[in-house]
Design a protein that fits this description.
The protein is α/β, with parallel strands linked by helices. It has six helices and 15 strands. The protein has helices at residues 2-11, 27-41, 53-61, 99-107, 139-148, 182-190, and strands spanning 20-23, 47-50, 75-80, 84-85, 91-92, 109-117, 130-134, 152-155, 157-158, 161-162, 170-175, 195-198, 200-201, 207-211, 217-219. Helix 2 (27-41) links the parallel strand 1 and strand 2 (47-50). The longest helix is centred in the N-terminal third of the chain and has 15 residues, at 27-41. It binds ribulose-5-phosphate. The site of ribulose-5-phosphate (5RP) has 18 residues, from helix 2 and helix 4.
């Protein structure tokens, strides 16, 4: 898909030799990882950390150096996709189930560059059900607390089985409808015992690059 590819490739211009780079997860991040691999082949010297096993495997297959997160202090730039982006750079992420590691990377990045095709832009977050990572223990009780915040929580199923995140947890997709105050909801959800993290990323993005099917990009 052209819009995703050109947004991803524009973001890779933020990457310079000597940097530690965070690799996102998903079909847009896929194009960024491919572009980074091209530049590594041309002599770019970087090390990367990955937000999922899937992205780590792809990076290694393409010859990109990947180091464990435990071995680094700070990330220079992370490049990652989003499921929704509002006008204030608030995001819903986690459609691919990698939201916890993605948020850890973003929180430790000097620059967090979000890449998305035009369909991801929204006025208000909430049409896309908010992914929440929860521990399996007593998950039904955690669902009750999530429901009390005003959503319909559904445990994610993949290929007929409960989806298990890279961290061994469940992902619950929570349909809230329009989210009036994303920052407040992000905190309220994380205050529930059993919740590990949620896919609201508020005040984290330093740049957003939107790709359009006509071949243009817009940086906001
Ligand atoms: C994975 C994510 C992805 O960045 C998000 O789902 C967007 O995916 P895509 O680029 O495939 O549309 O948060 O957990």
């Amino acid at each position: 898909m052209l819009a995703k590819k050109i947004a991803a490739e524009a973001a890779v211009e933020f990457v310079q030799s000597g940097m530690t780079v965070g690799l996102g997860t998903g079909s847009t991040a896929y194009y960024a990882i491919h572009k980074i691999a091209e530049r590594v082949k041309e002599g770019l010297h970087i090390r990367t950390v990955a937000s999922s096993r899937q992205s780590e495997e792809l990076a290694l297959q393409l010859g990109i150096p990947v180091v464990p997160l435990s071995g680094i202090q700070e990330i220079d730039v992370s490049i990652d996709g989003a499921d929704e982006v509002d006008a204030n750079y608030n995001l819903i992420k986690g459609g691919g189930g990698a939201l916890l590691r993605e948020k850890i990377l973003a929180a430790h990045s000097k620059q967090f560059v979000v890449i998305a095709d035009e369909s991801k832009q929204v006025d208000r977050l909430g049409k896309f059900p908010l992914p929440v990572e929860i521990v399996p223990f007593a998950f039904n009780l955690t669902l009750l607390k999530l429901k009390a915040l005003g959503c319909e929580p559904v445990v994610r199923i993949a290929d007929g089985n409960t989806f298990i995140s890279d961290n061994g947890n469940y992902i619950v997709d929570c349909a809230f409808g329009t989210i009036e105050d994303p920052a407040a909801l992000e905190q309220q959800i994380n205050a529930i015992p059993g919740v590990v993290e949620n896919g609201l990323f508020t005040g984290m993005a330093s740049a957003v690059i939107i790709g359009y099917e006509d071949g243009t990009t817009r940086r906001t």
